[in-house]
Amino acid sequence: MSSQPKLGILFTCEEIEATVKKLAAEIRQDYLSKHPILIGVLKGSFMFMADLIRLLDFPLEVEFIRLSSYGGGRKSSGKIKVVQGLRSEVKGRDVLVIEDIVDAGLTISFLLDYLRKKKPASLKLCALTDKPSRRQTPVTIDYLGFTVSDKFIVGYGLDWDERFRNLPNICVLEDEG
Ligand code: IMP
Ligand code: MG
User: Per CATH, is 13-149 categorized as 3.40.50.2300?
Assistant: First the structure.
């Protein structure tokens, strides 16, 4: 049996729902007639993506990409690669990347550079959460849900070593000991 770290609720289901609604309204306004491709970054964005697209009542496509950056721990290895790529053609399309969290920013910068090389008509980023105090490289977040302080968060898709993705709230993982 693995140990049970302490969790504290940071954002409740209701707060998440309201924030996802706010983001959907902003995205709807900008993409209504654009037939965009929304690219979710696996695995952390799957729950956010599922809730977000249900609120978008216009034609769009959904893709997922999987990158490797973090090992089992709480810090980025800094080495990022695509481990599961895209099936759709991105060239000439309006692309909106859906991310769970921007931390150091290395993962998303790598992905935005990777996508930019494929010559999309436009490329924007929607992130559910942002930890600006940890940034190592500048990142523009076009649609942002929550800003969080330098704490490790889990739940609503976000994991710690593959645990806690299924929590309906976003929680802070307290340091043990
Ligand atoms: P970075 O911006 O390159 O540091 O890495 C961002 C990625 O690291 C995210 O997509 C998450 O998968 C993971 N990550 C960073 N901070 C957290 C956190 O607080 N909780 C869970 N995952 C995190
Ligand atoms: Mg992760």
Answer: no
